[in-house]
Write a structure and sequence with these properties.
Bound molecules: iron/sulfur cluster
Strand content: 5-15%
Number of helices: 9
Largest sheet: 2 strands, antiparallel
Number of domains: 1
Helix content: 40-55%
Structural class: alpha+beta
Oligomer: single chain
Shape: globular
């Protein structure tokens, strides 16, 4: 399934992700050796994310508080899912590369999702808020609550499962809970408190704040708007840097992105 615009031949290399408060993580990754944009580095970043989040999951299980997310439960995929601009672009290209009937089905669900947001009066607010950067937690929280109320499933959700699992965004890999899964269906109900897993680092946040060359102000958008904003995303110019150097820069930046307290 993992194909398309973000694939590039890789060379196996070892990297170390260090950060305060936990042992460093050794990462054995396929990284394209030549100059690439962040789009071609996404597979390596996803692999790094899986390694880091996998370690959290193992530690929670060992401590007797296992992750309770299970196969076929896509309830959290009805949330507002903020992804980096480049992840959105990679997914838009991924959709365009799908075979005809499948592409039309997915594009149809994207159109339906956007129409639902527009009908609810939320579309313009979402675009404006994300274009200006969401730095105030209160603003994001209000958008998340209103988005949930509209009831817009991720266009990649099929029969409760992610249909793009190998190339799903980092934030989808990062999100899990240890609370009763039944609570996930009513996250904004007074008195309901989900026990969201807190990893050592917020890799999704770091990715949204990295253009492939250097750190930048957070540039994210709701996954649902990836196709709507595709032309705009394509217009951006991305730095090209040798893959290993780019990954080192990303990991260095990420090591400073401690997960926010819940
Ligand atoms: S990309 Fe997959 S995991 Fe992420 S919200 Fe969509 S369906 Fe869920």
């Amino acid at each position: 399934m993992a194909h398309g615009s973000d694939s590039a031949p890789g060379k196996r290399q070892v990297f170390v992700l260090g950060f305060a408060g936990a042992p460093a993580l050794r990462l054995d990754l396929d990284v394209p050796p030549g100059p690439v944009t962040i789009l071609e580095l996404l597979p390596a970043i996803r692999a790094a994310a899986d390694a880091l989040f996998g370690r959290t999951t193992e530690a929670l299980a060992a401590a007797g508080s296992p992750v309770t997310c299970g196969p076929g439960c896509g309830v959290c995929c009805n949330q507002l899912v903020p992804v980096s601009r480049e992840e959105a672009l990679a997914l838009a290209r991924f959709v365009r590369d799908l075979p005809g009937p499948r592409r039309r089905a997915v594009e149809g669900r994207f159109r339906q999702a956007v129409a639902g947001l527009e009908e609810a009066g939320l579309l313009a607010r979402l675009i404006e808020s994300f274009e200006r950067g969401i730095h105030k937690p209160g603003v994001l929280a209000a958008l998340q609550r209103d988005y949930w109320a509209v009831g817009v499933p991720c266009p990649f959700l099929e029969q409760g499962s992610c249909s793009v699992h190998p190339v799903r965004p980092v934030i989808c890999r990062q999100y899990s809970v240890t609370s009763d899964p039944a609570l996930c269906a009513r996250p904004f109900t007074p008195g309901v408190r989900l026990a969201e897993v807190r990893h050592s680092l917020d890799l999704a946040g770091a990715l949204a704040a990295f253009d492939g060359g250097r750190a930048r102000p957070t540039a994210a958008l709701p996954l649902t708007l990836a196709l709507l904003l595709e032309k705009k995303l394509e217009a951006g110019r991305l730095p090209k840097v040798p893959g290993p150097e780019m990954l080192s820069r990303f990991l260095e930046l990420a090591s400073r992105f401690a997960s926010p307290p819940r």
